[in-house]
Amino acid sequence: MAGCLWPCVTGVVAGSGAGHRKGGLFRSKPRTPPEVVQHVVELVTYILEHKQEGSGGGKRDTKLEHRMTELSKSIKEMKVILYGNGEEDPCDQACKQLTKEFFMKNVDLFRQLVVCLPHLDLETQKDVTQVIANLQRQKVDSRLVASEYLEANSDLLDILMSRYILESQHFRSFFDYIQFPDFNIQSDVFKTFKELMTRHKSTVAEFFSKNYDWFFAEFNSKLILSASNYFIRRQAIQLLRDILLERSNAAVMARYVSSKEHLIILMNLLRDQSKAIQVEAFHVFKLFVVNKEKPSEITCILHANRNKLLRFLKDFSCVDKEDKKFEADKARVISEILTLAMKSSS
């Protein structure tokens, strides 16, 4: 095909005509669309595996950096196949080949790229977006394979939407919307807020790693301390417990229960007029007490208030007095506080 930028069949060799490039005989021929897709799959797989393993204690991973650079180049390679290079138009057959390979069931590259997006630099993220946008329009055997793929994998839209909202400056507005006086609107906003903070666990964990300070400052001041609405306060404390107990948020919980400011908030909530809020607060308060890595300032506060806490806990009961789990948790908290007292006296 005249003007075809990429080889449409694997047998094409560089050398003459449209395939000839400056650099002559020794220039390597470009990868075919299936080869490009396969290369991207290998790179993304490697990056995701090694990102999940961590950074190796802060040690620079040059091999990972190299693959990140290679991935950026390969995504641009895809982009050129689909859009052309400004001098030559894209080849229809090459576009179809790329689309077909991209959405192969055994490849599932779309999902891998969505998961990998947070690890890519801004320029590569833009290139991925352009590639995906173009693929939505590509037909293979008169079928919009991208649409068929998304229909079968609609959860990816949820992940993308959640990531977009969490990274948007508009997300902060939720704390104000929840204060809206109309209860029905207030309730709907909080349900959406809770969904965003609990549905996509890895995305939320990454959000907290970047936004911990301002998020909990807003959460405490607008949803727990100043909220006059009983419903919002109780739901907020329940959500706080869910966030902290989620395994993927282990780093968040460790940081939260090491804060004396947060401990003081929870201890004051234990004295709330509402029994239901007291119980919800207890489920978060116990995390401070049973934490094996308690900072000294947390230990000091608990020790200084041990007598008041023990008196309170002695008669403290759940709404459901037959709740064995609650009673077991309460017994453990009492035991931990008594242990602190014994350590102090020894």
UniProtKB/TrEMBL annotation:
<dbReference type="InterPro" id="IPR013878">
    <property type="entry name" value="Mo25"/>
</dbReference>
<protein>
    <recommendedName>
        <fullName>Calcium-binding protein 39</fullName>
    </recommendedName>
</protein>
<dbReference type="InterPro" id="IPR011989">
    <property type="entry name" value="ARM-like"/>
</dbReference>
<dbReference type="GO" id="GO:0043539">
    <property type="term" value="F:protein serine/threonine kinase activator activity"/>
</dbReference>
<dbReference type="InterPro" id="IPR016024">
    <property type="entry name" value="ARM-type_fold"/>
</dbReference>
<dbReference type="GO" id="GO:0035556">
    <property type="term" value="P:intracellular signal transduction"/>
</dbReference>
<dbReference type="Pfam" id="PF08569">
    <property type="entry name" value="Mo25"/>
</dbReference>
<comment type="similarity">
    <text>Belongs to the Mo25 family.</text>
</comment>
